[in-house]
Amino acid sequence: MSVLEPSLVPVFEEVVRRNPGEAEFHQAVREVFESLAPVVAKHPQYADEEIIRRLCEPERQIIFRVPWTDDAGHVQLNRGFRVEFNSALGPYKGGLRFHPSVYLGIVKFLGFEQIFKNALTGMPIGGGKGGSDFDPKGRSNGEIMRFCQSFMTELYRHLGEHTDVPAGDIGVGGREIGYLFGQYKRITNRYESGVLTGKGLTWGGSQVRTEATGYGVVFFVDEMLRDAGDALEGKRVVVSGSGNVAIYAIEKVHQLGGVVVACSDSAGYVVDEAGIDLDLLKDIKNTRRGRMSDYADERPGARFLEGGSIWDVPCDIALPCATQNELDAGGAAALARGGCTIVAEGANMPTTPDAIRTLREAGVRFAPGKAVNAGGVATSALEMQQNASRDSWTFAHTEERLEQIMRSIHDRCLETADEYGVPGDYVAGANIAGFIHVADAMLALGHI
Ligand code: GLU
């Protein structure tokens, strides 16, 4: 671990003490703190006004019971969460994650990251996150619907287009947003489009929202390459995961002339030297809700490797797009050995602190999720704009906006890194630029 600036040590200790057992939250806070030394030195008013301590304490945390009935008629029980972290820049904004690993520490780490990510987009959105330990795997459509309805029956009272605007994350896609929106509308008797994003295109959703996170990742990487006088054309890319972020990252890599040779799910990974067949992948994952092993069974020339590590596959560029802490120091060393020169995070915090260090030491350029994957939430903000003006934009126009936003986030990271004496450091650039944007708004709004 790097050494913290001395004035931040007691603040970090306080975070650990006040949030016991929440390792992922501690990790996310520490990573931001490690970037803040030059900021603390330059702007003493942040410390005087306790901005950093206030930022680490969520404005509101909601934990609730989610009972629902399974297809066999048994009552099932889950826990729901919404952490409304910071609203200095706009209504709380961030996704809902339905996954058995979800507990308060995961929701807090995601909510904390979301504050800075949302600030980096330049859009008027605060940071929040929510979810449940509900496991959608193997559940019928009816079970998913009843779960979503029960979840919203409690959560609705905390939401609103000017208050808190959830969206999807792992385990929550268009289908779930539909059931959640339906229940919100029914309970409140309001067609309040702006209360959720990621909606369907026929009922208030935005073009490109589905593709946005993955496309945005690749626009960001393309800008990193351009900055080095290079291009995606002909590059070998490895993408972990096979969910929404991974699928559309693969699509955009292929559109820009690169080739994705591997992707994965929790059971293992597929290597397909001819390049991942996206039509087949989308059919398996989106239509049939199947597994990567099915892909290998149906695609001539593709191999499925159970367990093992996708990072052993040699590549030029690696995009971890699955989940937190999926790329450890061993994986990072394997990537460097395999010739990888860029790692950009499509998921939230997929790279462990040790892995980031290993990549740096090996000279691999590394860009953090809060900058790289901000295209999803940025397009959510575009969806809110369209809802507010009862308008809907074309695919081409929306994609152009997304591309501009991603290229400008990239540039802001590098400019900020330069300004604070850490040139080329995307982690510091993203953390500092996001932090200053929120901190200045907090200063302006007084002691709240
Ligand atoms: N869950 C996504 C993220 O991690 C999107 C959030 C949103 O669109 O509000 O940023």
UniProtKB/TrEMBL annotation:
What's in the keyword line of the UniProt record? NAD, Nucleotide-binding, Oxidoreductase
Q: Which SMART domains does its entry note?
A: ELFV_dehydrog (SM00839)
Q: Which residues form the active site?
A: K129 (proton donor)
Query: Which residues bind substrate per the record?
Result: K93, Q114, K117, G168, S380
Tell me yes or no: is Nucleotide-binding among this UniProt entry's keywords: yes
Q: Does the keyword NAD apply?
A: yes
Q: Which Pfam families match?
A: ELFV_dehydrog, ELFV_dehydrog_N
GO terms, molecular function: glutamate dehydrogenase (NADP+) activity; nucleotide binding
Looking at the UniProt record, the site noted as Important for catalysis sits at D169
**Any single GO CC term annotated in Swiss-Prot or TrEMBL for this entry:** cytosol
Q: Per the database record, which ranges form the Glutamate/phenylalanine/leucine/valine/L-tryptophan dehydrogenase C-terminal domain?
A: 206-446
Provide the GO biological process annotations: glutamate biosynthetic process
Residues binding NAD(+), per UniProt = T213, N244
Gene3D superfamilies linked to this entry: Glutamate Dehydrogenase, chain A, domain 3, Leucine Dehydrogenase, chain A, domain 1, NAD(P)-binding Rossmann-like Domain
- Cite the record's note on assembly: Homohexamer.
What protein family does this chain belong to? Answer: Belongs to the Glu/Leu/Phe/Val dehydrogenases family.
Name assigned to this protein: Glutamate dehydrogenase
